[in-house]
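Bench log, entry 3. Co-assembly request; chain sequences pasted below exactly as received.
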Amino acid sequence: MSPVTDALTDAATDAATDAATGAVPDSMTGARPAATRPPGRPRSERADKAIIDATLALLVEEGGVAGVTIEAVAARACVGKTTIYRRWPNKEALILDALASLKEPDPELAGVSVRDDLVALARTLGVEKGDRRRVGVYWNVFGNGDKHPELYRRFSRDVVEPRREVMRAVLRRGIETGELRPDIDVDLVMWLIIGAVVHRAKAYGVGPVPDDFADRLVDTALRGLAPH
Amino acid sequence: MSPVTDALTDAATDAATDAATGAVPDSMTGARPAATRPPGRPRSERADKAIIDATLALLVEEGGVAGVTIEAVAARACVGKTTIYRRWPNKEALILDALASLKEPDPELAGVSVRDDLVALARTLGVEKGDRRRVGVYWNVFGNGDKHPELYRRFSRDVVEPRREVMRAVLRRGIETGELRPDIDVDLVMWLIIGAVVHRAKAYGVGPVPDDFADRLVDTALRGLAPH
DNA sequence: CGGTTGCGATACGAGAGCGTATCGATAGTT
DNA sequence: AACTATCGATACGCTCTCGTATCGCAACCG
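Structure output for the full assembly:
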């Protein structure tokens, strides 16, 4: 019943999956005598992924860093504690890497209209195909910035800020092209859009975010509440 | 160095403070033979308050229910564990009461313009005189609705929803008076305003919420981002 | 004064979690 | 086959927390 996305069922399948590991480090000059592969049994890539996945899932479900337990991670990833401690020295380091794994390339924006780009960005924040994980991690890490400053700092720098910068650029472009009022406060608008999406996505007991939420949100923000 | 607001320094002052306790329960029919006061030493009202205060503070600082420890509450409130367990059977009940203590009467709104009422409401959410506690509790309880449903349910019903209802009424009134567009989605607008304020207030490392944040936020939402 | 109850301090057993150590088995290289 | 590193499982000592029990003292009533 474990909801792990890619739980490994037995060790037999492990060999085939990890066989490619040895071929990878050919990225050197090429003339080297291929002495890169260390001896002994190679580490399981599948275990890596399962551990990171389990860590993120617990980070969301258990409500923060305090709720993540090495033993729970091990159980959920179907992995021994040894396998975790061989890779990371402690819980903090594990969570740090798990957060870093959320880093993604900047979303491809159509760039046709500011309106559509904002909708696309809003979607990636928390409406994306039921991916509650991203916004859940964001909520929990963000809410504990003062308790775990290092975690917050690196998550913010590596994962959050790049996205924010994309949105900031879209808003600035909108001002230049005349699609947005020249006197708007870009940062304030970002709090508006991001806050609304994150808050709605994290809401409990009101159902999933409707598909058209991002569209209606951006349109409402653009038109304003007052008649004119 | 304990940051508890009203830490008691010694037991001597306790007697004077709690002396009024005996006079309180005259709220019965009055014709009763005044047998209301139980024998023995009365419970310290000051301890009550200190415990609730410490619980809320830890709920914010430690990032959720998991971070609240009875021993930490006792230490912070300068109180013995006994004193806590004499009042509440367990941690859950304590936190439940602590959350209930955040219930406040509905804010008095000027009712002159929808704009001013919205600003006033936004202020009470998280900008109010540096009261990070309220929004901190909101963030942590809200973010763990699925982990502690009962906590979430009662906090939502007793503390959050009444405030939301006030804002909803203001928005509806604005539509009726023509101050707001008739086609806005009231719930969507509430996500916008509440989400923005809460998110900004909870932001770490960007300084306190500026005094005019609520004003600029509401004005931006009213006018809209697009020129017209 | 005796009776009753609250108070803080302290100790307790139980359980959870951390990080380490050890085990036999496994999966690779040479 | 010999060698080496990883695998899951398990046990360990340690600390923290829970909720209970037991102190002696303090407060209030008669």
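Residues 11, 14, 38-44, 47, 74, 78-83, 86 of chain B lie near DNA strand C (CB under 10 Å from a C1'). The CA atoms of residues 105 and 119 of chain B lie 18 Å apart.
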